[in-house]
Amino acid sequence: MAAPETLHATAVSCQGRAALIIGPSGSGKSALALELMARGAGLIADDRVIVTLQDGAVIASAPAAIAGRIEARFVGLLRAEAAAPAPVALIVDMGQGESERLPPQRSKKVMGITLPLVHNIDKPYFPAAILQYLKAGRRD
């Protein structure tokens, strides 16, 4: 069994499926999470996410010290109801911009498991698209 890893990332969940939001500091991970939370997603963890392997799935959870907190730049640390650990269904890379209208399926390995990956887009519907991806997946 693989040892748990702590990633510099943020994770939210919707309908029991998690999005792992990665990218460099200041790339908008927490901002995207706040947008997703405003649309009904639950906060798993902000800034650091523990990932574990369980029955072939990557599970995202919060370190106890930061559970139920999210940073809103220029506002402060905000309280949020902590969502339960959830299997990662999607990775969102805020450090990579998307330029293709219909991008190819991309993936990234976490703990040896290949997971779907999408790149950041600077469009107001991006949070809604991420939630819909968590709810129903992508059709190709």
UniProtKB/TrEMBL annotation:
<dbReference type="InterPro" id="IPR011104">
    <property type="entry name" value="Hpr_kin/Pase_C"/>
</dbReference>
<keyword id="KW-0418">Kinase</keyword>
<dbReference type="GO" id="GO:0000155">
    <property type="term" value="F:phosphorelay sensor kinase activity"/>
</dbReference>
<dbReference type="GO" id="GO:0006109">
    <property type="term" value="P:regulation of carbohydrate metabolic process"/>
</dbReference>
<dbReference type="GO" id="GO:0005524">
    <property type="term" value="F:ATP binding"/>
</dbReference>
<feature type="domain" description="HPr kinase/phosphorylase C-terminal">
    <location>
        <begin position="2"/>
        <end position="79"/>
    </location>
</feature>
<protein>
    <submittedName>
        <fullName>HPr kinase/phosphatase C-terminal domain-containing protein</fullName>
    </submittedName>
</protein>
<keyword id="KW-0808">Transferase</keyword>
<dbReference type="Pfam" id="PF07475">
    <property type="entry name" value="Hpr_kinase_C"/>
</dbReference>
<dbReference type="InterPro" id="IPR027417">
    <property type="entry name" value="P-loop_NTPase"/>
</dbReference>
